[in-house]
Each structure stands twice: as structure tokens, then as C-alpha cells.
Write a structure and sequence with these properties.
This protein has 1 helix and 3 strands, in the order βββα. By secondary structure, the chain is an alpha+beta fold.
């Protein structure tokens, strides 16, 4: 099984997810949405997510 960090970073909100891939099966282990305006730097947002 492999794990990936996936994200959709926009001006209004940023969504981050931990995704698993096992063969042809994909699953979302964790998904969180954050207001982008609350984070001046991506590293801060990522640190909160992880």
C-alpha cells in the first residue's frame, strides 16, 4: 500500500488529503478543508494538517 498527500489549493479554501493506493483501489484516509486566507504560508497549513 502506498500513501500520498493530495491537495487542492485555491484562493478561497485549501483542501488536503492523505490518500492510499493499493493495487487498483484508492481510499481517502483523511481530508480537511482550510480557509486559505488564514494561512500566509503553505508550510504552516501543512504543519497543522500533519
Amino acid at each position: 500500500m502506498s500513501y500520498f498527500l493530495a491537495g487542492d489549493i485555491g484562493g478561497t479554501k485549501t483542501r488536503l488529503a492523505i490518500v492510499t493506493v493499493n493495487g487498483n483501489k484508492v481510499g481517502i484516509k483523511r481530508e480537511v478543508s482550510y480557509p486559505s486566507r488564514n494561512y500566509a504560508e503553505f508550510a504552516t497549513l501543512l504543519g497543522e494538517f500533519l
